[in-house]
Every structure is written in C-alpha cells, then in structure tokens.
Amino acid sequence: MATRGPKPVPTHLALVRGRPAHKLPKPEKQIRAPIDEPTPPAHLSDEAKVEWGRVVSILVQLKMMTQLDRAALAAYCEAYGRWVQAERALASMAAKDTLTHGLMIKTAGGNLIQNPLVGTANKAMADMVRYAAEFGMTPSARTRLQNPGSGANENPFEAFRKSSA
Predict the structure, then answer these.
(1) What is the count of structural domains for the chain?
(2) 93-121 burial: b if 16+ Cβ within 10 Å, else e
(3) What Cα–Cα distance (Å) separates residue 113 from each residue in 60, 116, 130?
(4) Closest by alpha carbon to 131, among 80, 61, 66, 60?
C-alpha cells in the first residue's frame, strides 16, 4: 500500500524553501550524505555527458549533489540526451518534408500517422522535466527555494518589531 500525503522533502531543500524549523524532520533521525561531485557513468550518450558537465558543478555549488544522487542525475541527463537526439532527427526529417515537417509519416497502407519520434521526444522531455524538478532545476521548483541566509526562517513578528523600533 502506498503512503499517503505529500512526498517527503529532504531537509536541505526544506531549509532553502523556508519551511519553519518546527516542521523540519528531526536532524538526529536523518541520514546525511556528504556533498560531492560524482563522476558521470560511462554509458551516458554524448549529449547526456555534455548536460552532466553543465549541471553537476552547479548542483555541487548549491550543496545539492552527493554520490547518492548519481543515478538520478544520470537518468535526468540520459532523458535530456534522448530528447536532443529525437529533436535532431525530427529536424532532419522536417528539412526533407515540407508538408508535415516530419511530424507525420505514411504507413505501408498509405495512412498518415504521427511520427514515432514525436512520441519519443515528448516522453523524454516529460521524463527530463520530472527529474529536473527533483533537483530544483525548473522555474517552478526554484520559486520554492530560498537562500537559507536571507532571513527566510526569521520570525515575521521579530522582523516587524525590529523595523518599527
């Protein structure tokens, strides 16, 4: 049976999102992996390796990357790589097909159907965005992040009292 309610949020994300301290999980009950820059898996496609290189140092700098996150980041990067490959293939087909721009293909029976590459690109894109949100790499995920040193966890009454004094 699946658990109920919202998915738990890692403490480091809860802190940067500005969650009140009394609602955070107990620190002594949490397992913390050290911040580290993992190496990319050898099986990644060329496009995925480029994306890995682009995002991993940023995630380490934000203290959001550990060795344990390697597989999830690899999945994100591979989804990105598939999306790029599918889009390139569609662009190549579009150059040759002025009518449907590669979005439709003709079956052996002569019927037009959606090009399977469109489905591949859409699925890879959806996977990529889902993984990106896990790492705080989408615009909506970033709106929920705050700099822990920005006073986000300060008591609003104290801030008001200080400003009126």
Answers:
(1) 1
(2) beeeeeeeebeebeeeeeeeeebebbebb
(3) 44, 9, 28
(4) 80
Residue by residue, what is the 3-state secondary structure of 42-89? CCCCHHHHHHHHHHHHHHHHCCCCEHHHHHHHHHHHHHHHHHHHHHHH
Q: Which tokens in the block code for residue 53?
A: 């290189």
Domain, as residue range, for 51: 11-145
Give SS3 for 30: coil
Tens of pLDDT, residues 106-159: 899 999 999 999 999 999 999 999 999 888 888 877 776 655 555 545 555 555
pLDDT in tens, 83-96: 999 999 999 999 99
Nearest residue to 48 (alpha-carbon basis) of 87, 73, 9, 80: 80
Structure token digits, residue 66? 């550990």
**21 is a domain residue:** yes
Whole-structure pTM value: 0.69
Establish if 95 belongs to a structural domain.
yes
Question: Please, what is the Cα angle at 111 between 109 and 115, to 5 degrees?
Answer: 115
